[in-house]
Amino acid sequence: MSKNILVTGGAGYIGSHTVLQLLLGGYKAVVVDNLDNSSAVAIKRVKELAGEYARNLVFHRMDLRDRPALEEIFDSNKFDAVIHFAGLKAVGESVQKPLMYYNNNLIGTITLLEVMAARGCKNLVFSSSATVYGWPKVVPCTEESPINAANPYGRTKLFIEEICRDVHRSDSEWKIILLRYFNPVGAHPSGHIGEDPRGIPNNLMPFIQQVAVGRQHALTVYGSDYSTKDGTGVRDYIHIIDLADGHVAALKKLADPSIGCEVYNLGTGRGTSVLEMVAAFEKASGKKIPLVMAGRRPGDAEVVYAATEKAERELNWKAKYTIEEMCRDQWNWASKNPYGYEGCAHQNNNNSAPH
Ligand code: NAD
Ligand code: WQD
């Protein structure tokens, strides 16, 4: 019988791609999402891409902190595991509105864990982040590297990791996998689903994409005086489909009786600079990305990339896609959906040319 997975935040960027890979892998998925940072169109597109498997997807628009609604979903389903993506993720916003971040990310997670415990579902995969490595003194970052956080968003990830370790210590029936994602980019190769940030993007690839489609004038490069190959920051970019597949691998690992509360990096193990990423995107899209060289962004690390051996060995998972493929798929999504999921509505309401 198909395994039934509750996916919180499943309408978002990583969630939507993971739900599709789950459906195609023969799983059933129940998505709960309040759509605060996503669109119902993403769910519709996932269903279209899933074809005959679309019947295995159920969507509930609700806030994770709505305990009675969550209990009702657990009462009418038997879940084999939960993948918990739901959370707010903008670093700068978390500095401005720390209580909003602590409320949403911590209360959401605690409510989820309490309802799971009460209903006897104790298998969890949680979205942690490479942000917990801060500015690493040594790269690649291994799962044993020291962790710390430079902002409230990062602290919510650190706190939730600790909460999960405590919950497992208190009750060994829990099986928990904490996945530390590096920098997810790209889109499903069909170009039908992808990342659709609200407002001005904070992250590199969505910003480059918006320059390419004419929504922004130029990319500001934050820092060109780092001790890196070309002076710009280096990160471990991972294709969203590789990342989604990492979740399917983690779900399979939960069946291993030896698993307790375990951390895995999901990255490629390769570092790419901002300028290398721009060059790869220009090649994939045929568009020139004008640059404005600027000072360092506060809180940014110089070089961050993953040690991938643990995930390769224990999850039997390895990232496959190249930087060229990440840029190709990012551009395919961007050129088909220059204004994201709500593009048509936006363009109809806005007759001025993008600038
Ligand atoms: P996203 O914003 O696209 O998706 C998160 C989803 O959760 C959204 O659809 C949002 O509407 C929903 N949500 C938020 N709070 C909710 C609540 N209280 N109740 C119900 N739904 C809620 O972000 P993403 O990039 O897909 O990230 C998914 C997870 O992965 C997040 O926890 C994020 O912190 C983590 N993560 C993301 C990155 C990244 O670079 N994208 C890197 C590391 C970790
Ligand atoms: C990548 C590189 C920037 C934008 C952030 C979060 C982290 C995680 C992933 C969730 C850096 C440079 C960027 C721009 C630029 N999210 N850059 N101009 O900083 O590695 O991580 O997203 O967990 O928590 O902090 O990713 O894409 O913002 O930046 O030059 O307009 O691109 O300085 O070197 P980052 P990013």
List keywords for this structure.
355 residues; alpha/beta; two-stranded parallel sheet; globular; disordered C terminus; binds nicotinamide-adenine-dinucleotide; binds UDP-4-deoxy-4-formamido-beta-L-arabinopyranose
Short structural description:
With 355 residues, the chain is α/β, with parallel strands linked by helices. The protein has helices at 13-24, 40-50, 67-75, 91-96, 98-119, 152-170, 204-212, 240-253, 274-285, 309-315, 323-336, 343-349; strands spanning 4-8, 28-33, 57-61, 81-84, 123-129, 175-181, 183-185, 219-222, 234-235, 237-239, 261-266, 272-273, 291-294. The chain contains twelve helices and 13 strands.
Task: Give an overview in words.
The structure is a single chain. This protein is α/β, with parallel strands linked by helices and 355 residues long. It is 40% helix and 16% strand. It is built from twelve helices and 13 strands. Strands 3-2-1-4-5-6-11 form a seven-stranded parallel β-sheet, sandwiched between helices. Strands 7-10 form a two-stranded parallel sheet. It is globular. The structure holds nicotinamide-adenine-dinucleotide and UDP-4-deoxy-4-formamido-beta-L-arabinopyranose.
